[in-house]
Write a structure and sequence with these properties.
211 residues, mainly alpha, two-stranded antiparallel sheet, globular
Length: 211
């Protein structure tokens, strides 16, 4: 909630306190109990699963995500393969895979995109834990986040065109969940501005990231 207040108000939380709160946030990111891990995994499976996906495909992804969250060391290669099969379960021998995306039809999020974002988030949390992000970068990312978030919130109710994954843009229930969603969105903006997402994506393209 400290970070949520800092993101929405300039006068209550100083940037130094926000930086310490981000360190705490990074230290606790990924630490969940069994029920929360199961719920997180189910949510991701529901987002990516094609209607034709089998129970076994759904179950495989569910277990891989739960184990990755439990150990905080996901097997990205296995997860990429299982998520791709879940999202696009029409693979045919000798036929190139047409990978399905989720989200907005004009800006689909692919399995590879999603994993790049997750890997970048891990690298960002490592920097935040060590307080290696400059305060001026935190403030600039907040400025950009506020603009992006206002646009997203304004358009959110309209982001349900045909073909969009059901509930992909639905706001979470409860103040705590809404605050967590906005902090998560801010860290995504920060990772992008620091060049971490681009670096991870480039690494994946040349084979340095195992997917």
């Amino acid at each position: 909630m400290v970070l949520f207040v800092w993101l929405t108000n300039d006068t209550v939380v100083p940037v130094g306190q926000a930086r310490r709160a981000l360190r705490t946030y990074a230290q606790t990111t990924g630490k969940t109990n069994r029920a929360r891990r199961q719920e997180n995994a189910r949510r991701i499976v529901d987002q990516f699963a094609h209607p034709s996906a089998t129970y076994q495909q759904r179950r495989t992804v569910q277990l891989l995500i739960e184990e990755g969250e439990r150990t905080r060391k996901p097997d990205w290669e296995k997860l990429h393969s299982a998520l791709t099969a879940l999202c696009s379960p029409w693979r045919t021998a000798s036929v190139p895979l047409l990978e399905r995306g989720i989200g907005r039809p004009d800006m689909p999020l692919t399995v590879s995109d999603s994993i790049v974002i997750k890997v970048a988030a891990q690298q960002l949390t490592a920097r935040l834990r060590a307080e290696q992000v400059r305060e001026e970068d935190l403030l600039e990312a907040r400025r950009v986040h506020r603009i992006d978030w206002a646009q997203y919130e304004a358009a959110r109710s309209r982001q349900h065109p045909a073909g969009t994954t059901p509930r992909f843009f639905v706001a979470p229930e409860g103040m705590e969940a809404r605050a967590r969603e906005q902090v998560h969105a801010y860290t995504g903006t920060l990772a992008g501005m620091l060049g971490i997402i681009a670096q991870v994506a480039t690494g994946a393209q040349v084979g340095r990231v195992p997917f």
